[in-house]
Design brief:
The chain has nine helices and twelve strands. It is of the alpha/beta class. Strands 7-8-6-5-4-3-2-1-12-9-10-11 form a twelve-stranded mixed beta sheet.
């Protein structure tokens, strides 16, 4: 993968990478192998990890020896809400490792925060608390999408989106933070009404299929609002599961349906990622389309030589 596909980004995500020494070893070996295979390339694959942070203390030496380009720590809210969602004592297990990361880890630390109906309004306080208490400066926010087997109480309704867009986002300009802080909010292919609210309130300007708008506030917070007006299919990101299933970005949340939704099984192609990518592009549902149903001109119809896709690996 690192030699032929050479994706822009690989993220070890899905379950907890540090829950098993073998999966942690794969992640660190990937960093070593990337350094070896891409030493003479003009760019290298950016490797990151997504973790709940509770087991980092077991791998501190490896994290310093083979540091990923970034670490995303998944935090669901202020300590009390985090414990409510993840169980009693969850934040106490996370806290010392979070402090260690800030003090010792050489590369960026991102707090990955899922937005539920129950924590949307707390976002300004959330950013303020973790930046002030721990010195964290990078926050990535995305929205919870309900599934048949998950709690409907956490679902973000359209009214929740509206209040978030029209009120909560602006409050980020008034919080007190120690220095510069970056906040990214990712809106996926949400409803057209939500996208219009973002446009009407000045958070996004471009009508491109995928756009990003930056807002620098006087208090040191820089907010970036990312919008996907169409499904991104395979041409922006894919997921590779431990079983070898090759999935489009939109399918990653359907963990129980990976086999049905996969566009390829890598074992069927002897793990040739180039072939799997091109096979996947033949599936029309993985092609990015504009509002009138036509293929977007930016969709690569053959293997890209200078604009590699990103990959997410369980």
């Amino acid at each position: 993968m690192f030699d032929d596909l050479a994706p822009a980004v690989v993220s070890f995500a899905g379950k907890e990478v540090f829950a098993d020494a073998r999966s942690a070893e794969i992640a660190f070996e990937a960093i070593r192998l990337r350094d070896e295979l891409q030493v003479h390339r003009p760019y290298h694959t950016h490797i990151g990890l997504i973790t709940n942070g509770t087991l980092l203390h077991r791998f501190q030496t490896a994290l310093i020896t083979f540091p990923p380009d970034h670490v995303d720590v998944s935090v669901d809210g202020l300590p009390a809400f985090h414990n409510q969602l993840r169980g009693p004592g969850a934040f106490a297990r996370l806290e010392p490792n979070l402090r260690w990361l800030v003090a010792e880890f050489p590369n960026p630390i991102w707090i990955t925060h899922t937005l539920f109906s129950t924590n949307l309004r707390a976002v300004p306080r959330f950013v303020e608390y973790y930046s002030d208490t721990f010195g964290l400066r990078h926050f990535s926010l995305g929205f919870y999408h309900s599934l048949p087997y998950t709690s409907p109480k956490l679902t973000v309704a359209e009214g929740d989106y509206v209040s978030f867009v029209e009120g909560t986002l602006q409050k980020l300009s008034r919080i007190d933070v120690p220095g510069s802080v970056n906040v990214i909010v990712d809106f996926g292919a949400e409803s057209a009404a939500v996208i219009r609210r973002l446009e009407d309130n000045g958070w996004v300007e471009s009508s491109e299929a995928i756009s990003s708008s930056k807002h620098a506030f006087d208090n040191g917070v820089t907010l970036r609002v990312n919008v996907s007006r169409v499904p991104v299919g395979l041409w922006r990101a894919v997921r590779v599961t431990p079983e070898g299933y090759w999935l489009a970005a939109e399918d990653l949340v359907y963990a129980r349906e990976y086999a049905q939704r996969a566009v390829a099984q890598l074992r069927d192609y002897s793990f040739n990622t180039r072939t799997a990518y091109n096979v996947g592009l033949a599936y029309l549902r993985n092609a990015a389309r504009s509002g009138n149903g036509t293929l977007l001109p930016s969709l690569p119809t053959m293997w890209p030589s200078r604009d590699p896709v990103a990959a997410s690996a369980d």
